[in-house]
């Protein structure tokens, strides 16, 4: 198993960590997650196991896109993708600036939700992205219909710039600067 690249401790929920996805070893787990009805906005509902493994192998080989498996207290619990919006997802839709980093996240579907868990996941993702001093702004493009993620994004400092039409969805183009994120954490440097 690959070691974590980033770890943070949430005072209420414990340890969250992220490690690179291993496309072959993690494919079965990721297939269960991305094809679950609760993951409809991940847009992989109809993928079989080989298609999921192929997609994550493609991401692993892409110099402008990464995927990370998130662990909660050592157990796989979420997925995060990081991409360069100047080269992926938003080309021709968003004028990427130096220091922009694109992001997707997915909390693993569960029948026993834990209060505050998904916000802790997103906070972990944002802390990992901003741990890189070159990251100035995080860009996201959640489905316009995904009101739950819009509320979570707002809670960590994202602002919706506009609705954009992407090949697979109408999305709320959203950004969060380092200062906006820190302000939500009570850090007003």
Characteristics:
alpha+beta; eight-stranded mixed beta sheet; single chain; 189 residues
Gist?
30% of the residues lie in helices and 31% in strands. By secondary structure, the protein is of the alpha+beta class. Strands 1-2-3-4-5-6-8-7 form an eight-stranded mixed β-sheet, with helices on both faces.
Write the layout of secondary structure elements.
Layout (H helix, E strand, L loop, with lengths): L5 E5 L3 E7 L2 H12 L14 H13 L3 E8 L2 E9 L16 E8 L9 H15 L5 E4 L6 H9 L3 E8 L2 E9 H7 L5
Parallel strand pairs: 5-6
Antiparallel strand pairs: 1-2, 2-3, 3-4, 4-5, 6-8, 7-8
Helix pairs in contact: 1-2
Task: Give an account of the 3D structure.
With 189 residues, the chain is α+β, with helices and mostly antiparallel strands. The chain contains five helices and eight strands. The protein has an eight-stranded mixed beta sheet, with helices on both faces. The radius of gyration is 16 Å and the shape is globular.
